[in-house]
Specification:
By secondary structure, this protein is of the alpha/beta class. It has two domains: 221 residues, Alpha-Beta Barrel (TIM Barrel), CATH 3.20.20.370; 77 residues, Immunoglobulin-like. The protein is built from nine helices and 18 strands. The strands form five sheets. Strands 1, 4, 5, 6, 7 and 10 form a six-stranded parallel beta sheet that branches. It has a five-stranded mixed beta sheet with strand order 11-18-17-14-15, with no helix packed on it. Helix 2 packs parallel to helix 4. The longest helix has 19 residues.
């Protein structure tokens, strides 16, 4: 009996996954594509509370990954991108009510130049009493359309203001619009952040890259159960790794350790298709024209998911 219990606990540990979620605006019906109503927010928080989920600080998840420890299956991390006023006026009280930690990623120029819908430095300093403040760039650019020098100029200016106004050095970065590639990632990593977060739907496990952690957006009315069912798919993307020449996605080659014989593939503009796996590998000839300069490729095996965002790069390989 003892051996059986040990085996069961080991199996649970091996499949353990946390989920990082991102919000933007709260209770702001002017922008439905990035808004979460307060009713929906409370409904989600109540679901976490009553179904055994534990909302933990982002820093704890990062520490756990860096120490190569197992990630508990019930961990939730909550993040907010773009320092909109609606977080302070409408949502902060809900976070405080549930005592849920959060990380707010600051678009520095919006606060520095006093954009109408954004938080002030004083409000950010107040928010820092309840959660962590992290970096989301100075000017919120489409990063693949900036040169390395322009990227560094944005970061240097934003980080200097962050330190001056908040007396903080941010530990984590997340990409504006969720857009990045290998070139951009190299520049970002040179700034020594403890972690970097993307916006690719999925989960975080012991095998996740702390400098490329998956995160799912919660906006509008969402099927929370659907998002929570997804697990991390340990996948090695061999092709594609960059936006393809002439926008033609000729093939897909991704290695996994899965034993399933079937998988699914999603391509922006082309939808989902089922495919046969060869020893757990996706190895397909496609010849699909990518009609968007921002195209997402997703693969699933059972309830495990991995994805890659392909972005045209003005300065990288064409």
């Amino acid at each position: 009996m003892k051996s059986f219990l040990l085996l069961l606990l080991t199996a649970v540990t091996l499949w353990a996954n946390a989920h990082i979620f991102v919000y933007h605006r709260f209770g702001d019906s002017r922008y439905p594509t990035t808004n979460t109503t307060i009713e929906e927010l409370q409904k989600e928080f109540e679901y976490f509370k009553t179904n055994g989920y534990k909302v933990v600080p982002l820093s704890l998840l990062v520490k756990t990954l860096k120490e190569k420890k197992d990630v508990p299956d019930n961990w939730i991390v909550l993040t907010i991108d773009d320092n909109f006023k609606s977080f302070y006026t409408n949502a902060l009280s809900v976070f405080k009510k549930y005592n849920y930690p959060f990380s707010l990623f600051v678009y520095v120029q919006a606060t520095q130049d006093k954009y109408k819908d954004y938080l002030t430095w004083e409000q950010l300093r107040e928010i820092a009493k309840y959660g962590s403040l992290e970096f989301h760039s100075y000017g919120h650019p489409h990063m693949t359309y900036l040169s390395d020098e322009e990227l560094k100029k944005d970061f240097d200016k934003g980080l200097a203001l962050f330190k001056k106004e908040l007396n903080l050095v941010p530990k984590v970065f997340t990409y504006p619009y969720g857009e990045y590639n290998q070139r951009v990632q190299k520049v970002v990593r040179s700034y020594g952040f403890d972690a970097i977060i993307n916006q690719n739907m999925g989960a975080v496990s012991k095998s996740s890259d702390v400098y490329d952690m998956d995160r799912t957006a919660l906006v509008g009315k969402v099927n929370l159960k659907h998002y929570l069912k997804y697990k991390f798919l340990d996948a090695k993307w061999i092709e594609p790794t960059i936006f393809p020449k002439n926008s033609m996605l000729k093939s897909l080659h991704v290695k996994t350790n899965e034993k399933e014989k079937k998988g699914n593939l999603y391509i922006t503009g082309h939808g989902w298709l089922q495919t046969t796996l060869n020893d757990g590998n996706f190895n397909l000839k496609l010849n699909k024209k990518l009609t968007n300069k921002r195209s997402r490729i997703m693969i699933t095996v059972g309830n495990k998911i991995s994805s890659k965002l392909l972005i045209k790069d003005k300065y990288g390989i064409k």
